[in-house]
Amino acid sequence: MSQRRGPRQDMLPEIAAAVSFVSGLLRTRGCVSEQQLQVFSGALREALAEHYKHHWFPEKPFKGSGYRCIRINHKMDPIISKAASHIGLSVSQLYQLLPSELTLWVDPYEVSYRIGEDGSICVLYEATATKPGSSYGALTCKNQLMLGRTSPSKNYIMTVSS
Known about the structure:
Blueprint lengths: L11 H18 L4 H19 L12 H4 L1 E4 L4 H8 L5 H7 L3 E7 L2 E6 L6 E5 L14 H7 L15
Antiparallel strand pairs: 1-2, 2-3, 3-4
């Protein structure tokens, strides 16, 4: 019998920010009840914790960034579709309820997103690294995207309340 371990405590705020954001997107469309949103949120939180448990490196926040990236672009992210299946939402329904182009980066100390291929990158959650030698200057997939921009990115802080 295998014993399940809970999510790492150091990733809970980042996962909570990501779950709140995606749930908030579903909430704004008004097609999902509050009870369904709670079930979806719980399923998404559990799926993200399981997916990230061996790919979370607080000492190197951008290591594994591509693995933790949630993406919708002509293909629904499997983690979102799995959580949505708990409330009976199909992939085609998700395409109607969520942006057709969405990138959500869930990294230690920062959660950010971009809607559209040329949209601005907006920060949902930001915390200070506990170790002074963190690798915030590393070239991540998000930083590479920003380097290729023709116009400067604008950073906004958006909060999603439940």
